[in-house]
Specification:
By secondary structure, this protein is mainly alpha-helical. Helix content is about 90%, strand content about 0%.
C-alpha cells in the first residue's frame, strides 16, 4: 500500500480519471454539454474522455488485482496466526478445566441409556449370538459327517467291502 507522496499521487491520478469518466458520461449522455463545446474541439474532447476512461478502467483492474492479492496474503497470515494461537488457547483452557467437576455434572446413567437405545445393543447381541450359534451348528454337523465317514471306512475294512 502506498504512503505519503505516492499515496497522494495515486489519489490525484484516480481523481483525475474519475473526473474524466464523469466528463465522458456527461459528453455521451447530454446533448446540451456537447453543444457547449465548439465543433472543432469535440473530437479532441471525445478522444481525451475515452483515453481517461481507458486509463481509469486499467487502474480499477489493477486495484482489484492488488486488493485480491492483499486479501489472500492477509487470509494466509490470519490462518498461520490461528494455527499458532488456537493450540495455545486450547491448552490454557484445558489446564483450567476440572474434569472431575465436569463428570459430576453429567448424568452418566441417562447418557448410557440413550446410547444403548440408539445402538440397540440387545439386537446386536442376538445377531452376533445367532451367527455364532449357526457357525457352531454347522461345525458340529461337519464333524458328525466326518465321523460317519470314519465309521463307514472302518466298517468297510472289517467287512472287507470296497468303496464305490
Amino acid at each position: 500500500m502506498a504512503t505519503g507522496r505516492d499515496a497522494a499521487v495515486q489519489v490525484a491520478e484516480y481523481g483525475t480519471a474519475l473526473a474524466g469518466m464523469a466528463a465522458r458520461l456527461a459528453w455521451h449522455g447530454s446533448a446540451p454539454v456537447r453543444a457547449m463545446v465548439p465543433h472543432r474541439y469535440r473530437a479532441a474532447a471525445r478522444n481525451i474522455a475515452e483515453a481517461i476512461e481507458t486509463e481509469l478502467r486499467s487502474r480499477v483492474v489493477e486495484l482489484a488485482q492488488r486488493g485480491e492479492m492483499e486479501r489472500r496474503r492477509q487470509h494466509r497470515y490470519a490462518s498461520e496466526l490461528l494455527d499458532r494461537l488456537v493450540p495455545l488457547i486450547v491448552d490454557a483452557v484445558a489446564v483450567r478445566i476440572d474434569v472431575a467437576a465436569v463428570a459430576d455434572r453429567l448424568d452418566l446413567a441417562a447418557i448410557t441409556d440413550e446410547i444403548l437405545d440408539e445402538i440397540d445393543l440387545p439386537e446386536i447381541i442376538r445377531t452376533s449370538s445367532g451367527s455364532l450359534a449357526s457357525n457352531v451348528v454347522v461345525g458340529v454337523r461337519r464333524r458328525g459327517m466326518e465321523a460317519d465317514d470314519v465309521v463307514a471306512s472302518v466298517a468297510d475294512r472289517l467287512l472287507r467291502r470296497t468303496r464305490r
